[in-house]
Amino acid sequence: MASKGVIASAVRALASSGSSASSTTFTRHLHASGGSKKIVGVFYKANEYAELNPNFLGSQERALGIRDWLESQGHEYIVTDDKEGPNCELEKHIEDLHVLITTPFHPAYVTAERIKKAKNLELLLTAGIGSDHIDLKAAAAAGLTVAEVTGSNVVSVAEDELMRILILVRNFVPGYQQIVTGEWNVAGIAHRAYDLEGKTVGTVGAGRIGRLLLQRLKPFNCNLLYHDRVKIDPELEQQTGAKFEEDLDAMLPKCDVIVVNTPLTEKTRGLFDKERIAKCKKGVLIVNNARGAIMDTQAVVDACSSGHIAGYSGDVWNPQPAPKDHPWRYMPNHAMTPHISGTTIDAQLRYAAGTKDMLDRYFKGEEFPAQNYIVKDEMAETRPAKRKPVFKKVDQLKPDTKGHTLVVKVVSSKMVMQKARPDGIQVRQVRIAECLVGDETGTIIFTARNDQVDLMTTGATVILRNAKIDMFKGSMRLAVDKWGRVEVTEPASFSVKEDNNLSLVEYELINVNELVNPGAGEVVNAV
Ligand SMILES: NC(=O)C1=CN([C@@H]2O[C@H](COP(=O)(O)OP(=O)(O)OC[C@H]3O[C@@H](n4cnc5c(N)ncnc54)[C@H](O)[C@@H]3O)[C@@H](O)[C@H]2O)C=CC1
What positions are marked as the site Important for catalytic activity (predicted)? Predict the structure, then answer.
């Protein structure tokens, strides 16, 4: 196992925030270095509720249901909900733990200071989605792996958002409060209760949750808009009728309801400040289950007080747990809850299973599912040394070669396979799309798999890093496996040379001694 020279590369979250890991030499391991491990989990306490449901796996008491499994393999498993301050239980274990499991619902803030103290730390797992409670730059610089259970609670959150939209549109909460306090005043509710039908709903962020929300909103006959860095699949656009808005500030004034569905990154922190909220329609309703810090706390309070925001609902706060004097508890027209949307019992079963799966892979030295990595380290000893990428043009690609980095435009994208495959208690969607990509020198078919499919939207410009050439029926196809990466980038200025499609050229194997230029010993173009 690697003991030094580990190179860290921040994958999804850092890429999205435009940051990159420093070039320090790192000293930690990607996968378990063998022997017994100390694993610490930080979960919310369930107290009297723990016994009420055997599947309440996300609680401190049930600790993801993995205690017996871990201990039977000789590992130590400490669980606590005590995560704040210098004398908390978590601090007592920071120095010698190997793996820290946290959740966004009761986030243990993994600061650069804690990472520095954690000399044995190798792996940070988020049981759920959203690892912004971890200092990802510090984790990357320390050569740690950060991973989460991508997709585990997206249905739970999308359903919850739909509920919050309806609660706000119908002015439900004051009605409920009247009943509890013995009142009966229909007018007090009805003067600002509406139908959802015909209203314009915009999601800021149309990733897994945003897309599920659009699908769920479709039957309500709203006008659906979405803003994202990338366009969604044209099929889904057609199915939902959702329209892409490239410019967020142009979308906001059109919306009666805005739902926030982006991760918290350097770019989205404070995205909804005073100025941006002022751009929203007067009387707008806002739902935010993404992260509290995407909002400027005081700007939301002021806009709710003035009526510019007519209703604000969400389950995410900054910080968490929200202190008793958090102003969002006291502002008018809110429908806030503790952080609950992604921790339904169904979600807990999924993120517990996903966490167990990653621990199992970590012990065995296996890769995690690619979409789960937030920060990924790579062991220098077992992988080729790093060099600066040399950008290639499409017409330089040769059969059976690899290690290509190219900037290409997506000319077209066609789904050729889409099926569900059982994986433990989860069902994974397997998706394959054939995409024609190209630059000013030619085109080639790129085979996009699973999450890559979402990035390969027609018209997008993407960087294919460490791509390889697969031969398919004698023709070249481009692909990016787990050692590479697909990144959406700024639109390129070139026009694609569509009359030079390399995938239409057929190759056949011939003997080395038939070669005109002996010594090459490789597949040659025989056409
Ligand atoms: N309240 C809860 O219990 C939960 C909250 N979440 C939050 O929801 C977020 C989204 O989750 P998923 O949909 O699964 O993530 P995802 O990664 O599938 O989608 C995020 C989308 O946001 C877009 N995006 C990122 N930065 C952007 C920017 N600056 N401008 C415009 N678009 C941008 C991405 O392109 C992507 O399409 C998570 O990061 C997490 O913070 C997730 C699960 C549970």
Answer: 291, 339
Tokens 């040659």 sit at which residue? 524
DSSP line for 333-394: TEEE-SS-TT-SHHHHHHHHHHHHHHHHHHHHTPPPPGGGEEEEEE-TTTSPPP-PPPB--G
Q: Alpha-carbon distance 478 to 403, whole Å?
A: 11
The residue whose CA is least distant from atom 43 of ligand 1 is 129
Question: Which of 319, 336, 353 is where one domain is finished?
Answer: 336
The ranges of the chain with pLDDT < 70 are: 1-34, 378-388, 422-428, 509-527
Average pLDDT over the chain, rounded to whole?
A: 89
pTM over 0.80: no
- On whether residue 387 sits in a domain, the answer given is no
Q: Looking at residue 165, what is its pLDDT?
A: 99
Query: Among the residues of 129-268, which ranges form H helices?
Result: 136-141, 154-169, 172-180, 186-190, 208-217, 234-240, 248-251
Residue 167 shares a structural domain with residue 298: yes
501 CB less than 6 Å from ligand 1? Answer: no
What pLDDT score does 526 carry? 27
Task: In whole angstroms, give the CA distance from residue 160 to residue 146.
Answer: 27
In a domain, 201, yes or no: yes
Residue 389 lies in a domain: no
**Residue 326 and residue 300: Cα distance in Å, rounded?**
12
Tokens 């077209």 locate to: 412
Spell out a b/e string for 194-208, using b for 16 or more CB atoms within 10 Å of the CB, else e: eebeebbbbbbbbbb
Whether residues 223 and 315 share a domain: the answer is yes
In the residue annotation, 339 being an active-site residue is answered as: yes
Phi, psi of 453 (to 5 degrees): -55, -40
Total count of domains within the chain: 3
Q: What is the position in ligand 1's atom list of the atom closest to the CA of 263?
A: 39
**264 among the known binding-site residues?**
yes
Q: Determine whether the shortest distance from the Cβ of 315 to ligand 1 is under 6 A.
A: yes
The whole domain housing 176 covers: 154-336
One domain, residues 10 and 38: yes
State both tokens at 381: 């000893």
The ipTM assigned to this model is 0.99
Is 312 found in the same domain as 194?
Answer: yes
* Residue 388 counted as domain residue: no
What's the CA-to-centroid distance between 229 and ligand 1, angstroms?
Answer: 11
